[in-house]
Predict the 3D structure of the following.
Amino acid sequence: MKRIVPILLAATLAACAARPPAPIARPVGPEPFGAVLLVPGCGGAGAHTERAARELVAAGFAVGQIDAGVCSADARAATPAIRREFARLAALPGVDRARLHLVGWSEGGAGVMAALAEIGARSAAAFYPACANVAAWRASAPFLMILAENDTVTPPAACLDLMERTPGAENVLAVRYGGVAHGFDNSGQSGAAAAPWTFWRLTPNGGYNPAVRDAALLDLRIFLDGSNQK
């Protein structure tokens, strides 16, 4: 068995390397248009990212997504993948490179926070980001934090504490949604098979709330539109 594990690992890594990049959705309308890169968390893409992508495309943004969820205790680990897909999105014909944005979820939100200063996005947002995974942070652009009041997976207190020692904290808008918890915008996995940790969405740690999801997505669109005007 000791010789099998490295072989299986090598095969898995080769399959990941061969996987084609996630498609980019383009809006219908005049060019140039802004663009948003979505960065899922540990559970990967699902109903939550699909809904966000549809609404952002309808609002006139091109939308890309990194090809796998971010799942690391070190938020900086996601930066290479975010940088690669961000560059691919920026190179899409019709995209205004001055209006590029990042949106992440949970660990993906922490990855967005860590990558923001290096990548140079116009603005960024994060749904219930894993702020405990961010050792130090500089809010180099307008940043929207979408926090869930009853979140026990990525508690909002960690983000509020981080903001108190963050250079550029005046660029951060933190909105805490009452009565909801981690994963409130995710009605369930879609596409890929459910990951083992999706039980969060079926317990008090992750109750789906479509009304709050809609409010958060509306706040996200207003924030991105406002960032485009600055």
About this structure: The radius of gyration is 17 Å. Residues 210-229 form the longest helix (20 residues).
